[in-house]
Specification:
30% of the residues lie in helices and 21% in strands. It has 16 helices and 19 strands. The strands form two sheets. A twelve-stranded mixed sheet has the order 9-8-19-18-17-10-16-15-11-14-12-13. The protein has a six-stranded antiparallel β-barrel with strand order 1-2-5-4-3-7. The structure holds adenosine-5'-triphosphate and magnesium ion.
Length: 508
């Protein structure tokens, strides 16, 4: 039987209730309780606030207008918001008739919470434990809903976005869901290595997991010189580009005659069947018009990036069941990063529409750079990210948008995300952007987000019956996103020495 934690008192409604907390109860804000309702059976509720009161220190007692009660002890009073009860068909309903004063309040056990909030599907994605519960209560989220309806992971820098995304990827690998990760900082290939962080290893028992590295991680990079550990060079397929793509990509705007030259050159190149950027530049060189030079300079700048050099990587290489393809863009010029996201996004979306690749998750780190809000610069990739956000669901291409600056992410992209995973955010503009993009987002939740502990996330949206706080589980694999120490703290180590003096060893 569950533990009694209090009793309803005073005027009792059906949307929320106050209760006197039992002396030995260890209730926390956000914790779950249940009350037996005479009409509906067990009803789940969540603690909103807890207050402590002592008559000895009441205003009248301390101002001397009434006699202080020597023997008065603390009274703890709490308020809980009703979540609902499950009807015969298993749907969560809210009561319409008030609870009975004097009814006992019990601690809600994991099973009723998970059942009521729809977090118990074992086939789901295991993200962590419900925050604020003494009993470990695992949170499983419906994987189909999560991917089909897009996700955003938002938080200030260092609050745990990439870590949470790492957990999500681990879960998706285990379910054989293909993931393509746009990784501007080269953090995600660490998924190949088991976690060896002693603090995190110590927590694995609580989360019921063990350390593990993953095999099917393929790391691509446009520049193997910068990222030599990558498995394969990323090259884009020039033959997939339309004249419109070239016009978007070239650094300066083309005149009509330059457009004409490019159009003709493309026609000639296509008549070869296969062609390279080099072939295209040669064809344009042979043109007599002086207008060609500006065009050649633009194409040579593209050539310098080497992004069209080598065997092209196709969506069928990147999107495979059980495989995570990491596009490591560390050290790559921002304009080339945008070009890569634009091209890969378009080619994968097109192949997905034609059924050439399986349903997948397209994960975009630093989304504010690839889908910026108006007023924060343009991006070559904005158009396709908007299209994936609005149409991807119909075709089984899920989008996961990750950003530390929600206010700088395109509003239409953010508002298409039906699951929000939010960690600590303090910037008022970012908080506003979050509350504007989420339906029914309350001022209360905004306050909560400002105070979240690292690694604790608020999950809102279609995948949960109501907003929940989750202590994100530790990763099975290594996390690659740790900050770089500018000045390393010297470690003090006791070294036995003839003089018996303490020696300081640095960087030991
Ligand atoms: N759930 C968690 N469990 C344990 N440690 C965590 C968790 N979440 C985050 N951390 C710790 O916090 C650090 C920062 O997390 P992370 O790299 O995910 O931040 P971020 O939000 O992606 O930051 P940035 O915006 O700089 O990329 C990690 O190195 C890790 O040590
Ligand atoms: Mg990060």
């Amino acid at each position: 039987m569950s533990k009694i934690v209090g009793m309803l008192f005073g005027e009792v409604g059906y949307g929320d209730f106050n209760f006197l907390v039992s002396k030995d109860a260890s209730l926390q804000k956000g914790g779950y309780v249940k009350v037996n309702h005479e009409n509906y059976g067990w009803v789940l509720a969540q603690v909103c606030f807890i207050k402590r009161y002592n008559e000895m220190y009441s205003l009248s007692a301390i101002t001397g207008s009434s006699q202080p009660k020597e023997d008065a002890s603390d009274r703890i009073v709490a308020n809980a918001k009703v979540i609902g009860y499950l009807d015969e068909s298993g749907f969560l309903k809210t009561p319409r008739i008030p609870f009975k004063p004097g009814e006992k309040v019990y601690e809600a056990e994991g099973a009723i919470i998970r059942k009521s909030l729809n977090l118990g599907i074992r086939s789901g994605v295991y993200l962590g434990l419900l925050e604020g519960q003494e009993e470990a209560s695992p949170v499983y989220i419906n994987v189909n809903k999560l991917i089909q309806k897009h996700i955003c992971v938002l938080a200030k820098t260092g609050a745990g976005k990439s870590y949470t995304v790492g957990v999500l990827i681990e879960e998706l690998i285990e379910k054989s869901v293909p993931v393509v990760v746009i990784d501007p900082h080269g953090e995600y290939s660490a998924l190949k290595t088991p976690n060896s962080n002693p603090k995190e290893l110590a927590l694995m028992g609580r989360y019921g997991i063990s350390q593990q590295g993953y095999e099917n991680i393929v790391e691509y990079t446009p520049n193997l010189g910068l990222n030599p550990q990558a498995d394969r060079k990323l090259a884009l397929d020039i033959t997939q580009l339309t004249i419109g793509n070239f016009l978007e990509m070239l650094p300066s705007k083309l005149t009509d005659s330059q457009k004409g030259i490019l159009f003709e050159a493309l026609k000639t190149a296509r008549s070869y069947g296969k062609y390279t950027l080099e072939d295209l530049i040669k064809i344009i060189h042979a043109h007599e018009s002086k207008a060609k030079w500006n065009l050649i300079t633009g194409l040579e700048m593209l050539r310098e990036s080497k992004i069209f050099e080598g065997a092209p990587v196709h969506p069928t290489d990147l999107v495979k069941n059980g495989v995570v393809s990491i596009i490591n863009l560390r050290g790559i010029r921002p304009d080339i990063q945008e070009l890569i996201v634009a091209r890969l996004g378009s080619e994968i979306f097109s192949d997905r529409k034609q059924g050439k690749v399986p349903p997948l998750l397209f994960l975009l780190e630093e989304a504010h750079n690839f889908a910026p809000e108006r007023g924060f610069g343009g991006s070559l990739s904005l158009g396709i990210i908007r299209i994936i956000a609005s149409e991807g669901r119909k075709f089984g291409m899920g989008l996961c948008v990750v950003s530390q600056r929600p206010a700088r992410v395109d509003k239409s992209v953010l508002s298409q995300c039906n699951t929000q995973i939010i960690l600590k955010v303090t910037n008022p503009n970012d908080l506003r952007a979050i509350s504007q993009s989420i339906e029914g987002f309350t001022a209360d939740l905004e306050e909560e987000i400002k105070q979240l502990q690292p690694g604790v996330a608020l999950i809102v949206g279609d995948v949960v019956e109501q907003p929940i706080f989750v202590s994100i589980r530790v990763k099975k694999s290594r996390h690659g996103g740790a900050s770089v120490e500018v000045v390393r703290e010297p470690k003090v180590v006791r070294v036995p020495s003839p003089s018996g003096l303490l020696r300081r060893l640095f960087f030991g």
